[in-house]
Design goal:
heterodimer, A: 114 residues, mainly beta, four-stranded antiparallel β-sheet, 11 strands, B: 111 residues, six-stranded mixed β-sheet, 0% helix
Chain lengths: 114, 111
């Protein structure tokens, strides 16, 4: 069974640009969550999508947004990039979402802002 | 406010011995706890979980213990193997999909 796939693996952007990251969940998984990992803050929750609807949101500015398609694939968008957005962005999927179901992670997209 | 704390940034043990990784939490609403392992350049891999209605869950060499009164959980790895060398994250959930992570403990198992 294929795992969670994230593309691209690496991305370099400059300040002020925008970026779109993609995530394909495990087949049959309907919940997709996004996390940001930085050395100082660790892993922090961005948002969760289920059935094309954002169900939970973390404490990130509105520049961070996402969406989910009918096939459960998800995209995350960051606009007006700042140096502090440099991080590893991880996507995780689970069957139905909610408490008690382990989330399975992709290998992430490493975003570097110059 | 760090709701999940892993106070040991690193831990070194000998192959064959027990590894004990600790995690403390502050939010009483957390009722599901997970451990993930992460190798460099890879995403976290789910290891084992425990619900707050239990105090122990075992899966092969991995056992998680939960002490709700102390708001403390630990992961025991017995026997430790060099391939277990990785960063281990404790995570908690309380009523939603959102995982709250600790900052991780880097485990090194020496041959």
């Amino acid at each position: 069974k294929a795992g969670v796939t994230q593309t691209p693996r690496y991305l370099i952007k400059t300040r002020g640009q925008q970026v779109t990251l993609s995530c394909s969940p495990i087949s049959g998984h309907r919940s997709v969550s996004w996390y940001q990992q930085t050395p100082g803050q660790g892993l922090q929750f961005l948002f969760e999508y289920f059935s094309e609807t954002q169900r939970n949101k973390g404490n990130f500015p509105g520049r961070f947004s996402g969406r989910q398609f009918s096939n459960s694939r998800s995209e995350m968008n960051v606009s007006t990039l700042e140096l502090g957005d440099s991080a590893l962005y991880l996507c995780a999927s689970s069957l139905e979402g909610g408490e008690g179901q382990p989330q399975h992670f992709g290998d992430g997209t490493r975003l570097s802002i110059l | 406010d760090q709701q999940v704390k892993q106070n040991s940034p690193s831990l070194s043990v000998q192959e064959g011995r027990i590894s004990i990784l600790n995690c403390d939490y502050t939010n009483s609403m957390f009722d599901y706890f997970l451990w993930y392992k992460k190798y460099p350049a890879e995403g976290p891999t789910f290891l084992i979980s425990i619900s707050s209605i239990k105090d122990k869950n075992e899966d092969g060499r991995f056992t998680v213990f939960l002490n709700k009164s102390a708001k403390h959980l630990s992961l025991h790895i017995v026997p430790s193997q060099p391939g277990d060398s990785a960063v281990y994250f404790c995570a908690s959930q309380g009523g939603s999909e959102k995982l709250v992570f600790g900052k991780g403990t880097k485990l090194t198992v020496n041959p």
